[in-house]
Structure formats: structure tokens, C-alpha cells
Amino acid sequence: FINALPKRPRVSAFTATATKEVKEDIIDILMLRDPVVLTTGFDRKNLYFGVETPKNKYEAVQNYLGQHQAESGIIYCLTRKTVEEVAEKLIKDGFSVTRYHAGLSDQERKKNQEDFIYDQCRIMVATNAFGMGIDKSNVRFVLHYNMPKNMESYYQEAGRAGRDGERAECILFYGGQDVVTNQRFLERNQNPELDALTLSLVRERDQERLRKMTYYCFTKECLRDYMLRYFGEYGDNYCGNCSNCLRTFETVDVTEIAKAMLQCVAESRQRYGINV
Q1: How many of the other CB atoms lie within 10 Å of CB of 49?
Q2: Cβ contact 208:150 at 8 Å
Q3: Are the C-beta atoms of 149 and 182 separated by less than 8 Å?
Q4: Per-residue pLDDT reduced to its tens digit, 212-239
């Protein structure tokens, strides 16, 4: 389109979250000429970041909401089915909840979005279809019922909390099944516009982004620092406002235990699932 114009105009590109690689892709694909690149920075100090691995996710969310009765927030789920299940249970348990996903009619989506924005409903349970252009200032928490597919998605969704500059909490409830579900989504990504080589490269990059998102859920480092480094910025190793910085970890040498387990697996000459 740009090349078809009689005279090339100035071209600008804007995005909410982009790594160094994505910025380079944008410049390359749009053939920008000597562009000025402005990044406002990713560190929002008012946001608390936490990762939890509860045995029962619903119970953990229910307990959290019980402790934040008067506050407004968003609960993100990976699938429409999970949105329906979580929203239904929360309504049954007496919480002020509405839902949002691409499977609802335009009319219902519009109504539910307005109910949340104008505080008719306190909690929004949604897939990542919810959020574009949402600038509700009093979102005090964003809970992720499942791990998103990459750090860009997580930062963008979590960043809908605390837009008023006041303290807000972003908590990710991690479970092993989240990786499996995201993996399935990646494998289903069949883009007819891409040739086989490009599709292979895209999948490889998506796989790496999923890996880094998974590392976020397991790292013992400062979560804010991990996130900033992902986006090419550098903070302190200690922010004092994330679950890792506020937790004490004990270092234990498990070399001999690990050796014994591996030896047991090797000598049994069988294939076993995770439970065994």
C-alpha cells in the first residue's frame, strides 16, 4: 500500500509491548527509513507481581477475592470453557461477576464490558479477547487463572491493573497443564499466508517465548527484574514488591537424591509417567 502511493509519507508504528526482536521486525517489514525509536519503559513500580502454584486454583482465587471484597479486578483464563466454569462458580458463590470471550454475541460482550467499566459488576472473567482499549483506572488486581503463552501477553494483560498509579496486584496461578494447553495452541497455528519455512521459524520463536514464560513461573530471581530483562531493560536484582523478593528460599543440595532417582530409571529400562 505504501509503495503504491505517489509519494511516500512519514510512517509511524505503535505497540504496547515489544521486545528488541519485534521492534526490529516492525522496522524491517514496514521498511522504515532511519526511524526514531521511542520506548517509554516497562517498569511500573506500583504493580506487585506474584506467582503461586496452588493445588486447587479455584479455591485460591476464591480466597483471594474473599480478602479483596470491595475491589475491582480481572481474572484471565486461557480458554472460553474455563471462563464459563470459573464465572459460573464465582456467581454461585455470591461474587459480583461478568464474563467476556469471543464466543459471546456482540451485544452480550458490549453489555458485559460496560457493566464492568461502569462498576455494575466488580469482577471480569475473560480470555485475552478482553482488554483492547480498556482503560479502567480502579482495577486493583489482575489474576491469571492460567499461564499465558508468552511474556508479552502477560505484561499487557497484567498491565491493566493500577492505571491510576495506586498499588495493584498481578498474580499468576501456575499449573503444569497450562504448558500443555499453550503447546496445543502453538501446534494448531496453521497460517495459510506463510510458507513452510516461515511457519517453522514462527513456531520456533513461539516455542522459545513459551519457554521463557514458563521460566518466569519457576525462577527464584526477582520477577520484576526477570520481566524487565526480557524486554531489554535492566533493573535491580531486588525490587521489594514481588513474591520472590518477599520470600525466603532455602538452598538444598539434591545431587545424590537426583543421581539415585536417575539410576533407578536407567536400571528399570521402562517408560514411566510423571505419577510413578
Answers
A1: 24
A2: no
A3: yes
A4: 999 999 999 999 999 999 988 887 889 9
